[in-house]
Amino acid sequence: RLSQEDQDVVVIDCDEDMIHRVNENLDVHSILGSGSSPSILNEAGIKDADILLAVTNSDETNIVACLFANMESPQTFKIARIRNRDYLESKSIFEQEGININQVINPESEVINRITTLLQVPGASDVVEFAGGRVKLIGLNIKAGSPPVGKKLLYLKQETKEQPFLVGLIIRGEKMIIPSGKDIIMPGDFIYLVVEEKGISGALRAFDIEDRPLKKVLIVGGGHLGSAIAEQMDHLPVRAKIIEKKAHLCLGLADKLNRVMVLHGDGTDRNLLKEENIQDTEVVIAVTGDEETNVLISLLAKELGTKKTITRISKFDYIPLVHAIGLDAVVSPRLSAISAILQYVRKGKIISVASLKGEAAEVLEAVALETSEIVDKPLKDLDFPQGVLVGAIVRGREVLIPTGETLVRPQDRLIILSEKGNAHEVEKLLTVKLEFF
């Protein structure tokens, strides 16, 4: 992702096959060796590096890499991937002067947060939160007969003035559209709405989508991720079950779960799913360690009558296909890690970044600095590239769904949707004007 944005990237790995694959597929410099070696870090140019990403599968290697990087180059911003809960519960250790890890990321935790957010809006296929949850980006599948079908967005906006929201993105087959008022919503479109939290019910009603509280959830896969989700379900007013086919994992789950029912069985077993009344289950969460199995479970659940599926997938090639085959939301530890990292790579005051539809588009939350090009100008006069849209502005306690006449003020939080490839141009508008210096 970084190399696609013309960043100068050096990759270190001790796996020769991995380095060979990197050299064949990416425009980056690669080094065979251990990233926790001071000599290898120096060979990679750590003293000139803006950021070190220590993201091996070993927490200890990542910590040691950051430790030596801090000794050689204290000014380098250091990000470490950490999975062990013991380490995560002692995060303050990483901030001490000797180690000085600037940011710890845990992709599994990011995925759990994402699933929790998705469960808050059962009628949506995707949900991304900004401004502490006050603004939401909601993904919806548009069916034939939905009230907005065939209408220009300009007219739709006039009809829904009392429930303000903005259609920020339309995905039509392989085509991605950052829409204008002239665009028309068609059956089969997948759209993203930008909406204030209190306006979610009204926005869903406008698309004839029910907004009922969640009652029944089935989790398939009792590993680290499924177990963590089940623990969260244990504290919610939801009837939840978890299926796991390894007996020893079921025993461990049964010991720590009070309200969630633990079932020993195969989540791909049609008869088992029928016995558990899968047709009455509102959401099935497939998070086994095998993504092909997860896809199969979700397809089976949809066939048997489940309203919504959440599927764990890591392979990027699979992600654009899932909506085409009838699945709903996708969660990916890899995408979650990328989103967590990108906010520190982006220039300007970026608060958060989220990838949409794999990596085809992204939405970022940024602060309008007093010295940037965008302040005190109406949105229609900003020199944003084609394929960029400001979906919402958060000003103090107020959330604005903007028009072209809306002025950007210093310290406004902007929710910006962008097609892939526009990151550099957006960054330029968000950073400090040259004359400020």
In short:
This protein is of the alpha/beta class and 437 residues long. Helices cover 28% and strands 25% of the residues.
How would you sum up this structure, described in words?
With 437 residues, the chain is an alpha/beta fold. 28% of the residues lie in helices and 25% in strands. The chain has a 6-stranded parallel β-sheet with strand order 13-12-11-14-15-16, sandwiched between helices. Strands 6-7-10-8-9 form a 5-stranded antiparallel β-sheet. A 5-stranded antiparallel β-sheet has the order 17-18-21-19-20. Helix 5 (107-120) packs across helix 8 and helix 5 (107-120) packs across helix 12. The protein has helices at residues 16-25, 38-43, 59-72, 85-88, 107-120, 153-159, 200-206, 224-233, 247-256, 270-275, 291-303, 333-345, 423-430; strands at residues 10-13, 29-32, 51-54, 77-81, 103-105, 126-130, 135-141, 165-172, 175-177, 190-196, 216-220, 239-244, 261-264, 283-286, 308-312, 329-331, 350-356, 361-367, 388-395, 398-400, 413-419. It is globular and about 65 Å long. The longest helix has 14 residues, at 59-72. Strand 12 (239-244), helix 9 and strand 13 (261-264) form a beta-alpha-beta unit. The chain is built from 13 helices and 21 strands.
